Amino acid sequence: MGYSRMTTKENRSPSQGPEQKRRSVAVIYHFFPHYRKAVVEALARSELADFTFIGDDHEYLHSIEPAKFSDRVRFQLAPTHRLFGPFMWQWGAITWALKPEFDTIIMHSVPHWPCTWIGALLARVAGKQVYFWGHGFLYRPKGLKGLARRLFYSLAHEHLVYSDRSKAIAIECGWSPDKVHAIYNSLDTEAQRAIRDSHDALQWSRTRLSIFKDDLTPVVICTTRLISIRRLDLLLDALAILAKRGRRANLILVGDGPERNHLALKASLLGLRVHFEGACYDEHRIGELI
């Protein structure tokens, strides 16, 4: 979700004058990871709406560090509790969704959370505008699971999704194109542009040499948790195919997770050069690698 896509003081449309009624928005999320910091800070600067961010403040899944916000951000604690498997509970998803001071609710769109179903439904009954923010459809829904997912997504008036593909699938399933917005994932683009612009070709060469002892081979990079659902094994297969075609590339993986050892073994068997950076919360380092 690139925060440059958000409406803030810096990019407000001339037609959006101060005479417009400011919306009061509750953003209810399970927790705000470190990579959400830039977009949350940008929304907190908005001149069109007042945002309050509700979520947990603990490390998530034992591998993702929570964001640390400036005093500008209005943050309210709402703890999450694991029920079983992927199912979790967060009372704040219901209590904050019903608070009368908010006319708009943005919720984390995970259908495994019964509190989100209840909170979104009650918010709609109360006359509030409800948005879901998340991956959206990763594939066309099928069967009972697909029916449940479609029912869940129908609780929101509009959707903020991570990709054009997710938006296309939603449209195929009957959602109006005007109600599904591809806003992508979060990067601190301003910080990373500054890092990019401060480096010259010699510095980039040194970075590649320090990692791979090679500054000529193209580099592929992926920043994500190393979990099976990401199918990073397919990325390794793709690089192996390229190598057989004479177009070798090195790989940097930024992140950690249970698949790390498996991916390292597969990379070794395929003869690929892969650098595992591990979990990284240093924006300068991430920008340098990208």
3D architecture notes:
The protein has ten helices and twelve strands. The protein has helices at 37-44, 92-95, 114-125, 143-153, 164-172, 189-198, 201-212, 232-244, 260-270, 283-289, and strands at residues 23-31, 49-56, 74-77, 81-84, 87-89, 104-108, 129-134, 158-161, 180-182, 219-223, 250-254, 274-278. The strands form three sheets. A seven-stranded parallel beta sheet has the order 3-2-1-6-7-8-9, sandwiched between helices. Strand 4 (81-84) and strand 5 (87-89) form a beta hairpin. It is globular and about 60 Å long. It starts with 22 loop residues before the first strand and ends with a helix. Mean pLDDT is 87; it is low at 1-16.
Tell me, briefly, the overall form: globular
The amount of helix comes to 25-40%
Count of individual beta strands: 12
**Strand proportion:** 15-25%
Which regions contain 5 or more consecutive residues with pLDDT less than 50? 1-16
Record the strand order, biggest sheet. Answer: 3-2-1-6-7-8-9
**Largest sheet entry:** 7 strands, parallel
- What's the N-to-C terminus distance? 17 Å
Rg, Å, rounded: 21 Å
Q: SSE string, helix = H, strand = E?
A: EHEEEEHEHEHEHEHHEHEHEH
